[in-house]
Amino acid sequence: MNLRYLTPVISIAASLVFVGIMLAVMGINPVEAYTVMFTRSFGSKFGIAELFVKTTPLILTGLAVAIPLRSGLWNIGAEGQLYMGAFAASVVALKMPLPDLLMLPTMFLASALMGMAWAAIPGFLKAKFDLNEIISTLLLNYVAIHWVEYMVYGPLRGKEVYNFPFSDLFSDAATLPRFFGTRFHFGVFIAILIAFIVYYILTKTDFGFSVRVVGANPRAAEYAGISRERVIIYTMLFGGALAGIAGMIEVSGIQLRLRPAISTGYGYAGIPVALLASGNPILVMLSAALFGFLYVGGSALQTTYSVPVAVVYVFQALIVLFIIGGNSLIQRRG
């Protein structure tokens, strides 16, 4: 079997071993801990629903990273794009008196456009001035996060929130339907559908071909008449739109209002999600499900063993490190 396909599997297994050692040092039986994680995630209707709820934004932020990654770019700004998408959707929900049937579609469109606008800044700077997109996208995350904080402490603070930095609750027309008496919402289906659409675009269209060529060999792309600048901008816009939609789904499906810390790092988690999937949109769904499992299972560890949430982030970081290390070894052997 190709070592490139084995790398993610080995990375996950190695991460399980290292986290298991860390749990053992903390006095926790690793086998029991992993059993608790699995049981809480798959052993009840609530656990399965929460798994889907956590996986949904990770699919979209994973795609937001994966699409530019296919063209050789690093979109580290999915977190900020998510926040700005959530902000735009909230403005529509709270300030625009639209007919009920138009509310959710307008929120969806506004979040995508705002995510695109936020991603357009580093995309343009990279295409025109070759400014490092890692730095620009990372720094814009902080701008977006603090912008949302300012809005909920000021102009968008609700009238009946008892001095908390929250907006008012959205109307029923501005919230995504929920099912099965859980937090499982319609956004789950939206994210899965988008993943399949992205897969089709990247594998079956001229645009997807251009993205692959630029990512594989930018100089050859130029000789073939493919504009690298255009691909850079378009892939960043595409990724930003999806991260913005993730923000809309989070506030409309889960939070039901705008508030600080609407994301538990979904945008940053999209980076290892995309890496583990090697940029493949279908595999992004599986990778996102794994990280969704880590979120839900990590919460189970917190409540059962009083384990800090940092264990989940250590798990994510180890997976990334092992993937990078494995790919580096493959390149040296190749």
Keywords, separated by commas or semicolons:
single chain; 334 residues
Provide a descriptive summary of the structure in words.
Helices cover 76% and strands 0% of the residues. By secondary structure, it is mainly α. The protein is globular and about 60 Å long.
Q: Major β-sheet, in short?
A: none
* Oligomer type: single chain
- Low-confidence stretches are none
Termini gap: 15 Å
**Share of helical residues:** over 70%
Name the shape in a single word. Answer: globular
How many individual helices?
13
Mean pLDDT: 92
Strand residue content: under 5%
Summarize the helix and strand pattern as letters: HHHHHHHHHHHHH
- Per DSSP E runs of 2 or more residues, the count of β-strands stands at 0
Computed CA radius of gyration, to the nearest angstrom: 20 Å
Assign the structural class, choosing from mainly alpha, mainly beta, alpha/beta, alpha+beta, or little secondary structure: mainly alpha
What's the short version?
With 334 residues, this protein is mainly alpha-helical. Helices cover 76% and strands 0% of the residues. Helix 5 runs antiparallel to helix 10.
Topology:
Elements: H1 3-25, H2 30-42, H3 45-70, H4 78-95, H5 100-129, H6 133-153, H7 187-204, H8 206-216, H9 218-223, H10 228-255, H11 266-276, H12 281-305, H13 310-333
